[in-house]
Amino acid sequence: MSEHPILVTGATGKSGRRVVSQLRAKGLPVRAAARSGEHVFDWTDSGTWDAALEGVRSVYIVQLDGTKLVRPFIERAVRHGVQRIVLASGRGIDNPEYAKDSSGVLEGILDSEAATRESGLEWTISRPGWFAQNFSEGFFADAVRAGELRLPAGDGAASFVDAEDIAAVVVAALTEDRHAGRIYELSGPRAVTLAEAAATISEATGREIRYVPLSVEDYVAELVRQGLPPADAEAFADVIDPLREGKDAYVSDGVQRALGRPPRSFSDFAKSTAAAGGWPV
């Protein structure tokens, strides 16, 4: 399938752009698809799907949360002759006790996984936990920039996984024959508390980053004072709940199984991000 372009949806996101980069580093043709960028692709506009799928045999699917669009997209992909799909999912989604679903995304993710398994294609599902890059370019980046992680996480820990490792697993699944029918839960090598994460980032950047634990009520109130609607503020607090409860502290073996090597540590992530000038300032 190497002569056919590999379609990467969500190509400007944390995992997608790294998948694009790693595929191109291997000299493979890539169709980088997103709402803006090289190839226009919009989940909510099915008129963009056919051009994205034309001539493609392998696809990385980064779904749009809160929707059930993966199923009709896969049906369209089958008609275009796609043979292999890799779905970006989430760690813990098959555990109803893992997290509150106030934003209503779980049903769509479960349907996406079911559609993937039922597709009749070669399929692999990637289930990463908390991204380490949430500190450098995502959920926590503004707090890192401000020097204070003010979050309702208590002393909970998570086994943060480097997005470079996530991308490497996806690239392996897209380009190798031994990953069909596998679900890879992805994590880092050990659980890290937010206090430990702040100290590690401080050491890597030479800046003091503090973790300030808040109650859920105080956190929601702070977000509302910053202009967020109360429902959105509560949804953000719900996202932190598994971290506070230690539900993402366990270590998964997906990186080792897929790549034959251990995942990168949070310290390695912090140091390499600093070396690349990737920390928010």
From TrEMBL:
Known EC number: 1.6.5.2
NAD(P)-binding domain ranges (all copies): 10-176
Pfam families associated with the record: NAD_binding_10 (PF13460)
Spans through the membrane: none
Record key words, sorted: Oxidoreductase
GO molecular function: NAD(P)H dehydrogenase (quinone) activity
Group of enzyme by EC: oxidoreductase
UniProt cross-references to CDD domains, sorted A to Z: TMR_SDR_a
SUPFAM superfamilies with a match to the protein in the record: NAD(P)-binding Rossmann-fold domains (SSF51735)
Protein name: SDR family oxidoreductase
Organism of origin: Streptomyces fimbriatus
